[in-house]
Specification:
By secondary structure, the chain is of the alpha+beta class. Helices cover about 30% and strands about 25% of the residues. The strands form 5 sheets. The chain has a 10-stranded mixed β-sheet with strand order 19-17-16-8-7-6-5-2-1-29. A 6-stranded antiparallel β-sheet has the order 20-3-4-26-27-28.
């Protein structure tokens, strides 16, 4: 038998310990994993021990679902789309992006992030790049030049898609055709809830375009159990919920941008009466033409009022954007998602990194809230309408020196009504009876807007003393026209008494209509034709405020009623009959499929609403509207249903997700899988990622 001395044993134990440490360290690196379980709807449930690994998995998942779209978005945000693909439209895009100094600011923003946020950004980008390396054959050849993705790309994309695309939405060339874009959000407190649990409805209505498209995901680590939606290319949850709290957003009128007219002279502009030099710096861009490149220079011109975006005849327009000096939106959104109650959420929100949007929230403890969020300039006088015009630089207040604090913004926390609700209406009407007085706030904070959709929203909420989860499921998909509820009886009575046969036929169709804009609804098209004829005129004998929920207009004008005959004639000429179904006219195109039926219309007071562009043969094609809907109840066990209308993939999916659009047409929601057992039972694909 071999004998060992004490010295030999100690030496042997020493080397065993060293080897064990090395192996353990090596295994620890390789054991840091993110697990992605894709459910039947195409939703990734991403789980990791550490947050950085969670972000790695999120980057991987977004590229799997939308890789080529994201590369195009990032290329555009870099200001290099003309370099990669050429074309005058891309040149114009690059010039705009450089004039606003977005690429350079993104580098500054990245450097200012905390060590923690840099780690998460880097992990998200690493996950994206790892996916493109492993599945390089799925990247379109024309997009390969965009690779690798940079850690500043998502910050450039954030500025372009949010600060410019949302904050300065009205500057978009297509904004006039999107004027009915909007959103709905409700929070129901214990006073209004049949179960005593708080409930939340989230329903944004953005354009269905790549830079406004949502990605639905579920994120779980040692600090987070968060479900919701984010913009493509962003790692930050924009709206969603955890086990204790949730929030939604709707577009508001916070003054998040200005266009200021400047006087120019020899590279100088007038600043409060004095000629002052512009800050001018050049930026080089490349423009692809065939197999060669042209070099061009963009002059970045900055004034104290903002960046110059247009010059003509000794004048210039400077664009001020709220939030360009506040680089911590991602940090704030992460803290909002980790909050467990309204007070903690408000602490995160009070950092005011988001330039605008109403915030509606609810927590498990029974609190609900509404915040008219915005980075709003302090003005000496004037109302929002006046400050929404092109502003002469000589006007007092045109040069912004300071912004309102979080404490000065309109808020409603736990109102007596038991609910808060917003459908892009003003803060003063975001519960009923009102809990805020407009006179208590500066007149430049908000418009006093309240339309038919907002009226429909409040009327549904007030239709019952207490609401159930199933009530919210029914209400969220409603396309019943509030305008039809108000005028249809009078319109039918007028038509029935007429000797005009077209009017009598119209009366018969409208009397059988269910007042909905659902796919097989008959009468909706005739009613819409009538509305389009009267909408530019005075419809009622006396002007009526829609916010008066207790009353009704005095009546339709004779002219408005008579136009039903013209509407009937036009409907027959365009579509062949008066009782044409809604889905035979209103269409939705998803990829290469054209589907009948879609969403209701904001103009006639539908809650779940969309907006459309004209197509051939008098058809209308959906371009935006209800993109995501979710109803959540915060009980002892969280209960939720949801729907991402257009699905979670633009790439070819590795399996065939269940079609969500068909559920949208039925005005329903599908299951949301939040707990481990239900996630495992509904997993269609599991991926185990080893991070490096």
């Amino acid at each position: 038998m071999v004998q060992f001395t004490n010295r030999q044993v100690l030496k042997w134990m020493y080397w065993v310990l060293i080897i064990s440490i090395v192996i353990s360290s090596h295994c620890k690196v390789k054991a840091q994993k993110a697990t992605i379980r894709w459910d039947q709807w195409g939703i990734p449930h991403i789980e990791a021990k550490w947050t950085k690994d969670l972000y790695y998995g999120l980057g991987w998942a977004q590229m799997k679902a939308h890789g080529n779209v994201i590369l195009k978005l990032y290329a555009k945000a870099r200001g290099k789309s003309a370099e990669y693909w050429g074309g005058q439209e891309n040149v114009q895009s690059d010039v705009k992006i450089w004039r606003l100094n977005i690429p350079a600011r993104s580098k500054t923003w990245y450097d200012l992030q905390t060590t923690e946020m840099k780690e998460y950004i880097n992990a998200f980008v690493s996950g994206m790049n790892a996916y493109t390396r492993k599945y390089s054959h799925l990247i379109h050849p024309e997009n390969e030049a965009v690779l690798p993705i940079l850690n500043t790309d998502l910050l450039s994309h954030l500025q372009l898609s949010y600060h410019v695309g949302v904050g300065a939405f009205a500057l978009n060339q297509q904004s006039t055709s999107w004027e009915n874009a909007g959103s709905n959000a409700w929070a129901i407190g214990p006073r209004k809830s049949a179960s005593g649990n708080t409930m939340l409805l989230i329903q944004p209505h953005p354009p269905w375009m790549e830079n406004h498209r949502f990605f639905e995901a579920h994120l779980t680590d040692d600090k987070t159990n968060l479900y919701g939606i984010m913009q493509l290319g962003s790692p930050s949850m924009a709206m969603g919920f955890n086990e204790n709290l949730g929030w939604g957003m709707t577009f508001n009128q916070a003054d998040s941008f200005d266009l200021i007219e400047l006087e120019l002279q020899n590279g100088k502009y007038k600043l409060e009466g004095n000629w002052t030099g512009l800050e001018i710096s050049p930026a080089s861009i490349k423009i692809k033409e065939g197999n060669s490149f042209l070099d061009s220079t963009v002059q970045i011109k900055k004034s104290a009022y903002g960046y110059l975006v247009s010059e003509k005849n000794g004048r210039a327009l400077a664009l001020r954007l709220s939030g360009l000096d506040r680089p911590f939106m991602m940090q704030q959104l992460m803290e909002m998602g980790r909050a467990t109650n309204v007070a903690g959420f408000e602490k995160a929100l009070s950092k005011l990194q988001l330039p605008l949007q109403n915030i509606i929230l609810a927590d498990k403890k029974g609190s609900i809230g509404y915040v008219y969020n915005g980075i709003i300039p302090q003005r000496p006088s004037g109302n929002l309408g006046q400050w929404s015009q092109i502003i002469p630089s000589s006007r007092p207040g045109a040069l912004v020196h300071s912004y309102h604090s979080y404490g000065e913004l309109p808020k409603i926390i736990d109102p007596q009504s038991g609910f808060v609700a917003n459908s892009n209406n003003s803060p003063w009407t975001s519960t009923y009876p009102p809990a805020l007085e407009e006179k208590d706030y500066p007149p430049y904070f908000a418009f006093s807007n309240f339309d038919l959709r907002a009226r429909k929203s409040l009327k549904m909420l007030l239709s019952k003393d207490r609401l159930t989860f199933d009530d919210l499921l029914e209400f969220q998909g409603s396309t019943k026209s509030e305008l039809a509820e108000i005028v249809l009886g009078e319109l039918i009575a007028f038509a029935e008494q007429s000797k005009d046969q077209d009017l009598k036929s119209a009366a018969k169709v409208l009397s059988q209509w269910d007042k909905k804009l659902d796919p097989k609804s008959k009468g909706a098209i005739l009613f819409i034709e009538w509305y389009l004829l009267v909408s530019g005129d005075s419809m009622f004998t006396k002007e009526f405020p829609w916010a008066n929920l207790e009353g009704f207009p005095d009546g339709l004008t004779t002219s408005a009623k008579k136009k039903l005959a013209q509407a009937a004639k036009q409907t027959k000429e365009k579509y062949g009959s008066l009782d044409v179904t809604f889905d035979s006219v209103f269409k939705t195109q998803l990829k290469d499929k054209v589907l009948g039926g879609a969403l209701g219309l904001n103009e006639v007071g539908c809650f779940s609403a969309g907006f459309y562009r004209p197509g051939p043969e008098h058809k209308k094609f959906l371009v935006g509207g209800t993109a995501f809907s979710s109803v959540i109840e915060f009980g002892s066990r969280l209960r939720a249903k949801g729907l991402l209308s257009y699905g979670n993939f633009t790439e070819d999916p590795p399996f065939e997700p269940t079609d969500q659009f068909e559920i949208l047409l039925k005005r329903r929601l599908r299951d949301v899988y939040f707990y481990p057992k239900e996630i495992r039972e509904n997993t269609k694909l599991k991926e185990l990622l080893i991070t490096e």
